[in-house]
Amino acid sequence: MGTTTPPRTLAEALRARGDESLAGLLRARPDLLNPVPNDITQLATRAGTRASVVRALEHLDRFALQTAEALAVAPDPAPYDTLLSLLTGDGLDDGEQRDGAGAAITAALPGALATLREQALVWGEDDRLRLVRTARELLAPSPQHPSPTGLGPTVSEATAGMSPGRLQEILTATGLPATHDPVSAVAALSSLFTDRTRMAELLDTAPVEALSVLDRLVWGPPYGEVTPNPTPPVKWLRDRGLLLPVSTRTVVLPREAALHLRAGRAHRVPEPVPPAVAAAAERDPQAVDRAAAGQAFTALSTIEELLKLWNGGGPAILRAGGLSVRELKRAANALDVSEPIAAFWIELAYGAGLLATDGETDERYAPTPASDEWLDLSTEDRWTHLATAWLAATRTPGLVGGQDAKGRALSALGPELDRSAAPDVRRRVLTLFAELPPGTAPDAETLLRRLRWERPLRGGTTATATGAGPASTEGTDLRSRLALWTLNEAELLGITGRGALSSQARALLDEGPDAAAALLAPLIPDPLDHVLLQADLTAVAPGPLERPLAETLSVLADVESKGGATVYRFTPGSVRRALDAGQAATDLHAFLAAHSRTPVPQPLSYLIDDVARRHGHLRIGSASAYVRCDDEAVLNEILADRRSTGLRLRRLAPTVLASQSDPGSLLEALRDMGYAPAAESAEGDVLITRAGARRTPPRTPPAPVPEGPPVPDATLLGAAVRAIRAGDTAATVVRKETSEDASSTTPSGSLPRTTPAETLATVQAAAMTGSAVWIGYVNADGAASQRVIAPVRVEGGFVTAYDHTADEVRTYPLHRITGVAELAEDGKG
Fold first, then answer.
1. Phi-psi region of 685 (alpha: psi -120 to 50; beta: other; left: phi over 0)
2. Which residues sit opposite 250 in a β-bridge?
3. What's the pLDDT tens digit per position in 756-811?
4. What b-and-e string marks burial along 761-793, b requiring 16 or more CB atoms within 10 Å of the CB?
5. How far, in Å, CA of 354 to CA of 342, rounded?
6. Contact status, residue 644 vs residue 611, Cβ threshold 8 Å
7. Distance from the Cα of residue 613 to its chain's centroid
8. How far apart are CA 271 and CA 259, in angstroms?
9. What is the dihedral of CA 214, 219, 220, 224, to 10 degrees?
10. Tens of pLDDT, residues 548-605
11. For 49, 67, 141, 492, which has the most beta carbons within 10 A of its beta carbon?
12. Residue 726: in which H helix or E strand, if any?
């Protein structure tokens, strides 16, 4: 570490880093840990692979990426001042207008370089900055993948293969001394283009139309098409090398000339400072919290209603997986929401583990046993459960109704809705919300602009230009779409209220579910134990009801409208539903009297008594199916009704009719005809149908699909760094050269070879002196390796030693050691 020799390779630069710096690299690029590299050289090799570099570039912010792009078009290696001038320009174009931008760039560049160095994308001292070769290939210009900076190839690259005669013609046209050496000719032309004074003098002689051509090419793309007989302005530029041929019909503006026209800047608009998120509105924080709490309660009510809707067994699963369009529409109508919002609630319940498939032959969706546990939680705990599941979910309901890469429709609960970037975008959007003062609603456009600055390769157009491959088939704006969906979903869920982040959501992000629940609890209204019965056969619930009351009332009446107050309507069908669930008329009268703050209206009492009097008068069983009734006149009336023709009824006895229809269909048909039959069992007992009888087997919520390898914890990072250091010691250690080595033709790097007696004597001596030795070892699987060990004990044909390569004490059979060599004095440790 005391040497001042600059590193010659990325591996040497990494080797010179401290353990904390190496851990920072592995933390920033966790893909390098799978598996743990054997040594520093392997770590450097892996850090330069295309897939790993693409992933690292995708996580750069815009200015760090612009810095890397500037290095890609700078000389290799590039001094710090050259890099800075590529970002700030030479100051000769806008004068004072760019002073503020230049100061911001000068202040931000060290941080951007530190980021690139930490991620092993840039290495070397400030006087010799090098961009890793793979990143340079991805970001450097080419006809197939133009540079994101809009710059073309250098004069040297563009003139490669050009005839010496053509070079002489260009030199003559530009007034440069003739030379027969192509290298000298290229150097002279490059020198002209980089000389501000001489280049300005050359352009002063250019036709106005030629300058217009340069204006169209200067900021890219630098390539243009020409005809076999170009116009005089294009011919003037081509004759003087300001346009160089790429093919018979394509020319390019060389990089040096473009940089002169740009006043030395690699980017039109460098962005060293992240754009600020502007405020769209300022609201009362308490009003925001109340609005969010109200929406949170609505969210819980909607999820409860969805669970009730699928309580007895939900819709069937499509063969390709997911929910059919018809079933999604049916759920949307039942929840009284649009289809996209219904898809969000369904996906939220699924992601929270409240809905799942039942695993039967005729597979359907149904509530899980966990949904019953969730319903037993307090209101605030139910909300934190949903919010936490939403934050971590990779399933993206906003995609429902779109198409995948193969043109197939994406369905709710389908298998193609996972987007690994979704949790990161949600967290980042809410973090940007939290950075604003309480009660402040951010402007959506500035929020999206900030997200694009932070991850330009994930949310902007740069990804396509680099050819780095991160642009998905859905377009390069997936992160922007995720952000917009996050804004809508956060409002639906009660994370935000009136467009601003609520206090309970801030607590959820910073402190966890318990703190959020504590802040939400006082804002949730206490459930009521009463309703207001009306004379028009309705009941008004002036607020949220206690769960037993709400469950019973939902069976006895139909929900007519929702809002601050819920209106229930009593109908013959709803009363019959309560009777089918095992309630008697006296039970219903007592229930209403106990929970109504107003007297029970007479029409409602008459309705209950009338339906109860006729309920069960007819009995439906299975013959295929039969109808029995003690009143023959009723059966005669059914047989005479034309609507019963399709049921294929026939009389078996004066009080029994048989049908070819199944019992369920017969039951529904007679109810549609105005009767109130009851189903009965094979023993003749009335069947009681209770709601909520179907549950899936225990299911775990769907696991989020991670975005790349997980970030390692401190323990794993420390162990990985020690293993890499130990492996590097084994790979780079110097061993003493013996006389056999001097005369041997064994190639360098092969396993050492010694006789068994020499091996035993050497390791015994090392155990006595406490020194380390270098061994060749072949394990039981036949895999050979080189190791540095410090023998501790040698007995019974085994050597116990501290293995520097594995950073642990191990025991090796002596017969598997191919040879041993002492370490050179300067190679120890």
1. beta
2. 225
3. 888 888 888 888 888 888 888 888 888 887 777 888 888 888 999 887 766 678 88
4. ebbeebbeeeebbbbbbeeeeeeeebbbbbbee
5. 15
6. no
7. 60
8. 18
9. -10
10. 888 888 888 988 887 768 899 999 988 988 888 888 889 899 999 999 999 999 999 9
11. 67
12. helix 714-732
How far is residue 251's CA from residue 769's CA, in Å, rounded to a whole number?
A: 72
Instruction: Tell me if 367 sits within 8 A of 285, measured CB to CB.
Output: no
DSSP 534-574: -TTSEEEESSPBPHHHHHHHHHHSEEEE-SSSEEEE--HHH
State the pairing for strand pair 678-679/619-621.
parallel
Residues 6+ apart with CB under 8 A from 467: 138, 144, 145
Look up the pTM and report it: 0.75
Supply the pLDDT for residue 139.
Answer: 86
Of 541, 579, 573, the closest CA to residue 557 belongs to: 573
Contact predicate 132/53, CB 8 Å: yes
Q: At what angle are helices 325-335 and 285-309 packed, to 10 degrees?
A: 120
DSSP reduced 3-state for 421: coil
Please enumerate in sequence order all residues whose Cβ is within 8 A of that of 287, keeping only pairs 6 or more positions apart, or say none.
Answer: 439, 497, 498
Helix runs in 248-318, H state only: 255-261, 285-309
Record the tokens describing residue 120, joined without a space: 């092993």
Q: Between vectors from CA 499 to CA 494 and to CA 501, what angle results, nearest 5°?
A: 60
Contact 65, 116 (CB under 8 A): no
